[in-house]
Amino acid sequence: MPSTMLDWPGRMATSLFLSGCGFACPYCHNRHLLHPIDVPGDWAAFATHVLEKRAWLDGVVVTGGEPTDDPDLRELLHAIADMGMPVKLDTNGSRPELVRQLISEGLVSAIAVDIKAAPSHYAAITGWEGAADAVSETVAVVIGSGIEHEFRTTAYPGAVSPLDLEHIAHSLRGGRMYAIQQFRPVDGMPQGVASVEPYADDTLLDAAQECSRHLPTVVRGLSSQEAGAEE
Hints:
Layout: E1 3-4, E2 13-18, H1 43-53, E3 59-64, H2 73-82, E4 87-91, H3 96-104, E5 110-114, H4 122-126, H5 131-145, E6 148-155, H6 162-171, E7 178-182, H7 191-194, H8 201-211, E8 217-220, E9 227-229
Parallel strand pairs: 2-3, 3-4, 4-5, 5-6, 6-7, 7-8
Antiparallel strand pairs: 1-2, 8-9
Helix pairs in contact: 3-5, 6-8
């Protein structure tokens, strides 16, 4: 259970991956977690890890898969809270009511919402009719809550264009941060996806400049170094 500052910028955190996701994005980096895993996770080992490292551990990132699809998520978050550890939730935004509930109960300290595509492309990319409306509601819930948050989009050329990125940023006005993530093929992706050429770094940097007209925007995963553009 490695710890890193990449999953929760500014904090040393450990990540807990939950299985199952209702989306079917072709470029998913965690395809092995798309379907629920029947084998129970080793909670005792995870709890021991957190308690042993709590002197220098700043939080737990609950990710997936899609954590809000797990029926035991609230129980899990309560257990982490009992250990005195703050939680950052990574979500695709498909369950706005649950996100609202978790925030109101104080079970999450930060949220990252993955924005998969422009609204008009959402159903085609995720395989879920109505996804765009659900995600839009989650965005409004998160921004309105005042909780620490960021929105992020993987710049997969088969799903989003540079112009789409600006349209997405416009829909996120009032948000604290938008992160454009460079697409990188990984093992397990379909051949047709893995062979897609990522956008040039300059293309994403230019897009970030346009997005920064709407909210602070950074670019992550560039071939040279992490770079950003802010308003």
